[in-house]
Amino acid sequence: MAFFDKLETFAKNIGDKTSDAIETGKLNSKINAEKNLAAEQWKKIGEYYYNLYINSGEAAPEILEFCESAKAHLAAAEEARIAIEKIKEENEAQAKAQAAAAAATATAAVPTVPQSSGTLTCTACGAEIPEGRKFCSECGAKVVIPEPTPAPAANVCPICGAEIAEGKKFCSECGTKIEIPEPTGPRCCVNCGAEIAEGRKFCSECGTKQPE
After folding, report:
1. What is the pLDDT along the chain (212 residues), one digit of tens a residue?
2. Between helices 61-107 and 2-56, what is the axis angle to 10°?
């Protein structure tokens, strides 16, 4: 029996130590939490007296040095923030200027000298540009050669404006009947071009039959 009593006592001692360790851990956590809460209150106290210093310009001699130091640090931080904003504004302005210059270069410089002369004139700076070059060697402006204006169609639909192929009597787009004006002047042979007398069906020069 004595052996079992000792064993029970030993187990009880281990259990007590384990409980003590758990309780000690809880108390240490509470200590840390309370210190953190106290630190937050100290911060509020410091902010309170610092605001009094800012508003009145005065502070107790024992904290005046700390207030002035804090003010200097905040002023330096504000200067750095302003410098960052200035850098951003300068970069944005530079980017806009570069974009505007690129757009102007891309749209400017239509040549004004006929291409047959072998040279073109840059409308951006007036320098001569050899034929075949795409950019001005003086200012870098792009040379834009205007597309030739297409000749107007011989026959155009009066309703929709679509081009009418030669010999067609109706518009292929809207179906409008096209009135073909009667030819004026003397008839000419379709083969040799000789003049055909009125009412004749064959050319008197080459014998070609003429269309009705």
Report:
1. 565 565 566 666 676 677 878 888 888 898 999 999 999 998 999 899 899 999 998 888 889 998 999 999 999 999 999 999 999 999 999 988 888 888 777 655 444 444 444 567 777 777 887 777 777 778 777 776 666 655 554 577 777 778 877 777 788 888 777 776 655 667 788 788 788 778 788 888 888 888 77
2. 70
Nearest to 139, CA basis, from 103, 105, 96, 98: 105
Pair 137, 151: CB distance under 8 Å: no
CB atoms within 10 A of CB 205: 13
Helix (H/G/I), strand (E/B), else coil: 195: strand
Supply 158's token pair. Answer: 């009066």
Domain boundaries, the chain: 2-101, 108-148, 168-212
Q: CA–CA separation, 98 vs 103, rounded Å?
A: 9
